[in-house]
Each structure stands twice: as structure tokens, then as C-alpha cells.
Amino acid sequence: xxxxxxxxxLAGLVIAGLCAALLRRKRRTASLRTxxxxxxxxxxxxxxxLREGDLALLQNEISELIARLELxxxxxxxxxxxxxxxxxxVSHQLKTPLAGxxxxxxxxxxxxxxxxxxxxRLIEKTERLVAxxxxxxxxxxxxxxxxxxxxxxxxxxxxxxxxxxxxxxQKRFESTGAAALRCDRAWLNEALSNIVKNACEHTPADxxxxxxxxxxxxxxxxxxxxxxxxxxxxxxPHLFERFYKAPNASPDSTGLGLAxxxxxxxxxxxxxxxxxxxxxxxxxxxxxxxxxxxKITI
Length: 298
What we know:
- The strands form two sheets. Strands 2-4-5-7-6 form a five-stranded mixed sheet. It has a two-stranded antiparallel ribbon with strand order 1-3.
- The protein is of the alpha+beta class.
- The radius of gyration is 28 Å and the shape is globular.
- It is built from six helices and seven strands; from the N terminus they run H-H-H-E-H-E-E-H-E-E-H-E-E.
- Among the domains are: 73-140; 149-288, Histidine kinase-like ATPase, C-terminal domain (Heat Shock Protein 90, 2-Layer Sandwich), CATH 3.30.565.10.
């Protein structure tokens, strides 16, 4: 009986030790999970563990992976800044000769030159191309400060429509739904304006541009539909690429508007996609709802 009692005591000690070890493992697992959530939300680094065991090894491997990821992100940001600086230098160098060409073309126009009007249009397109390319590179390089504040998306949409109605008086501009979103109002206005402008250029004179706003618990969605017949499926993946222009694009198009829109949406931690739907093209902008005190690293 004495040995039986001793065995029970030993068994109890073993079980207690196992429970204590399991409890410590759960605590360390919870701590690791908390640290990973802090990195995802705030970019807080994950410290190395000096302990032994599988969890410590896993934590150190994750920490090494995060360090490499941050290094690659920094390299990408540095490359974008270099590209933006290069674009700024090229833009500065082109301004003087373009201004000179414009002056000579205006003088030729006063003298009745038959080609002066075409030359001026080409110069204006080149100036616009340089300005938009510089803007695109600066957005990518985080050279612009985005001022985030809550805005009503329905009101913003109507402001965009108000700018295009005088230019396209026969078109129908319609909007439904409502949602509030923390955003940079001016930049989001430009992003949506680029999409509406693209729709106006690819729809009939009496075409329709429909904006549908959907409000969710975690995200807000802006859906833009037109009745322009859509685009070939093979072109859909290329719509947001720099300098890409559809075969029926306007001669004055620079091919940068939708690329700029994509970068603006990305700065709002959102996504933009394109698909053929209904009678034309549908572009969908999806934005996560982020609290004022929450930080998302990209």
C-alpha cells in the first residue's frame, strides 16, 4: 500500500508538471500571436527569443522572415524614390524646351501656319504626359502627404459628376447607396474622376455612368458601371498598367489615368479591379475601414 501511495504521489507530480508545461506553452503561444498581431497592425518588430524549444525556434524564424520582408520593402521604397527623383529631373529638363516649342508654335499660328494647331495639341499632350508620369512616380515614392479624414462617398461622387456634366451634357450620371470612409478626399476624388473620365470617353454620346456605393462592417465599395460595351477579356489585366491604351482610346489619352487611380487606391490600402458586366465595363474599388488610431504598414 505504501508503494501504491508513492506511485500516486509521483503520478500527481508528473501530471502537475505536464499541466504547468502545457500552461507555459499556451502562454508563450498567446504571446507570439499577440506579437504577430502587433506587427500586422502597427509594424512593431518581433523580438528574437533566447529560450529553447520549438516555439522559440519558430519565433526566431518568423522574426528573421519579418526582417527580410522589411528589408525588401525598404529596397522597393528606395527604388521608387530614385525613380521619382529621376522623373522629376526629366520633367524639369523638358519644361524649358517644351516652353520654347510652344512659343514658336504660337508665333507660327499668328502667321497662319497650317500645322500650328496640331503642333500645339502635341505639345499640350506631351506636357500632360510629363506631369502625370511625375505624379505617378511621386505617389509610388510616398512623396505626397495624404490627409485622411472621414468623408461621405455619395457626396464625393456627386462632386465628381458635377465636374463632368458640363463636358458631357447628354450622358446620364447616376449614383446609389452611401458610405462613410476615412480617406484623402482630394486624392480619392482624382482616382474616381479618372475612372469616370475613362467611362465618358468609351460610351456613346447619350451613355450612362452608374456609381453604386456599398457600405459594409469592414469595408466600403465603390462600383462604377458604364454601357460602353466593355473591353476584350485579354485587355482586362492590362487596364491599370502605365501607358496602356485600349484600341478605341481617345487620341489625347496618355495611358496613365487608371495607373494613377490604382496607386491612389493602394495608398488607401484598397484594391481596384475591372471586369465586363452588363452592357459595359465595371470597375470596383474596395476599401477597408480603418480606425483613426490604427496603422497599416505597406
